[in-house]
């Protein structure tokens, strides 16, 4: 029986190998492309909801402006029926707004906790659809390992599903170049990127890359997985640089230096391909055997950057 005093859910971040970068419907968070991601074990959000007199938000014990959460809770009320005001207590084990998918794990955990609190009997796909209204990438954080968010055509059919693959020895070397809040939010970045003259071509290319990525994962071809992910990410960031509405970049000097070192690693025979989300941090796709060597290689050259190793993570869970 659900504890009506509160309910806690845990969701892990995910990193997209084929990106979501642009909205076909901003109000409903319907994407212009389907996307594919890997859920990570090392980064997560634990969120507890408790009955309160008004909606409020605490992150890592600090009171926050809860406007975005309040708006999302009201969307859930409109969709599922009214429920009392909630105090949202979130423990975030991932840097906020730095391109490490903090909003994905946050809104996935919040959706799951609210659903459990209210005794909603929902499938993971239904939870994924609801979470999309808070953060598009949250759709994928309900599932272990790889997940695909099918763009769909409307509110009813735009959600993620688990994408089962043969067991892969994949790992990411996470280069934490900056944990500060980014100057251009993901939502604003997408709006601006969609003004690029190259945007329509990127959408078409992304669909082709997704089809090829599925084949590469099924055949356990990690090198091809890395090639496709790097090409997709770099093309996404090129859209930001070619936006006609205030072009911009999430990269800084350290981002560029790390990307050059990824090329150098490949020349030395390492499996190493880069992917980046909306932030300066670089994630290097490799295998679990080479990840510690790549981490050591980079740590020698970048003394001020923190390097972690991330591995495939679990789906949603409850406490």
Automatic annotation (TrEMBL):
Domain Mvd1 C-terminal: from-to ranges: 173-304
Domain called Diphosphomevalonate decarboxylase-like N-terminal: residue spans: 11-160
UniProt-listed Enzyme Commission number(s): 4.1.1.33
Keywords noted in UniProt: ATP-binding, Lipid biosynthesis, Lipid metabolism, Lyase, Nucleotide-binding
Entry's Gene Ontology molecular function annotations: diphosphomevalonate decarboxylase activity
SUPFAM superfamilies, per database record: GHMP Kinase, C-terminal domain, Ribosomal protein S5 domain 2-like
UniProt xrefs under Gene3D superfamilies: 3.30.230.10, GHMP kinase, C-terminal domain
PANTHER family in the record: DIPHOSPHOMEVALONATE DECARBOXYLASE
Protein family: Belongs to the diphosphomevalonate decarboxylase family.
Protein name: diphosphomevalonate decarboxylase
Organism: Fructobacillus papyrifericola
